[in-house]
Amino acid sequence: MKVYEYHLKTRISRTKEFEKKHLAEYAVNIGLKCGHGCTYCSTGVMLRTHKAFKKLGVSPFENDYAIIDPDTPVRVAQDACRKRQRGLVQLCTTVDAWSPEAQQYQLGRRCLEAILSQPGWTVRVLTKNAAIKNNFDVIERYKDRVLVGLSITAPPVRNDAISVIEPNASPIQERIQVLQQAHALGLRTYGMLCPMLPGIADSPDAIDELVNIAVECGAGEIFAEAVNPRGRGLILTQKALESNGFCKEAASIDSVRNRSNWSRYVTGLIRNVQQSVRKLSNINKLRFLLYPNGLTSEDLAQIKQDDEGVIWL
Fold first, then answer.
1. Smaller CB count within 10 Å for the chain: N or C?
2. Are 197 and 226 in contact, with CB atoms under 8 Å apart?
3. Does residue 34 have a cis peptide bond before it, meaning omega lies within 30 degrees of 0?
4. Exposed e or buried b for every residue in 74-86, given b needs 16+ CB within 10 A?
5. In angstroms, rounded to a whole number, what is the distance separating the alpha carbons of residues 102 and 70?
6. What is the spatial distance between Cα 286 and Cα 225, in angstroms, rounded to a whole number?
7. Where are the alpha helices (DSSP H) in 256-305?
8. Are strands 31-33 and 65-68 parallel, antiparallel or unpaired?
9. Residues 10/75, Cβ–Cβ less than 8 Å
């Protein structure tokens, strides 16, 4: 994996989008491209106009490199001191502060320490890497001000397929174990079941298992989301699965590239997640993140008949 160091201006920034998602009021990102290399990632679509890609001569839609700024914690520390209005910060929103290249510079740990050293800040950690456990000593010192989440994108039995499309992230079972460890230490946890890919994590049985994992790990909230169809993520995911022999799963991904099929997939996913959370937990904990663009009028009307736990974006 090629790693580029690039000077950015990112600090602690307001994030209206993630505030709508009930995730955070502020965001910190330690780079532009994450080394976990998830094929379905939509960051390239969101950040495609950033001048860094042209300057470095790379495509925002490829996943074989990472872009980080090792100096991010310095700017974060400055903002943590200077900002008068303080609140919940998500670390991170577009990349992962515990990805392999970020670990080399301890970017996650340094940003955590910089933010939490100042009163009034709360941090929501989101990662796909079990390495977050190495920072539990920091989190324990501020346990009332940190929310710990690891993306659990499929039941452990489907790690074979997940390892193909999340090649540099920690295995699913390791992520679960770390979330269990966080709960055992008395840390605040939440469930992040995103994205729930068709053919891998959208069946009723798979959803029940994922929701139950979140419940057993003491999740105060359970976030869920369908895969984002924008950009080349679905194509790259389909190709990766096909080339590794997961033809049935690849066909399921290919099917939702069609608008009506994607709409039906989302509608069914919402219903199954609602049913599972009602059965295994409390529907008030559900935060199903839904972009209605792309839904057919019929499916939109059906979802609105029962949209408990749905966050409309």
1. C
2. no
3. no
4. ebbbebbeebeeb
5. 8
6. 11
7. 259-280, 297-305
8. antiparallel
9. yes
Region 135-140 average pLDDT? 98
Q: What is the pLDDT of residues 159-198, one digit of tens each?
A: 999 999 999 999 999 999 999 999 999 999 999 999 999 9
Contact predicate 87/122, CB 8 Å: yes
pLDDT band at 1 (very low <50, low <70, confident <90, very high): confident
Checking if the pLDDT of 230 tops 90, the result is: no
Number of neighbours of residue 162 by Cβ within 10 angstroms: 22
Neighbouring-strand partners of residue 148: 125, 189
pTM: 0.96
Can you list the pairs that 231-238 forms with residues at least 24 positions away whose Cβ atoms lie under 8 Å? 231/42, 231/44, 231/45, 231/61, 232/44, 232/61, 233/39, 233/40, 233/41, 233/42, 233/45, 234/40, 236/39, 236/40, 236/63, 237/39, 237/40, 237/165, 237/197
d(CA 74, CA 120): 19
DSSP assignment of 93-128 equals SSS-TTSHHHHHTTHHHHHHHHHHTSTT-EEEEEES
Domain boundaries, the chain: 1-127, 150-313
The tokens describing 186, both together, are 């008395």
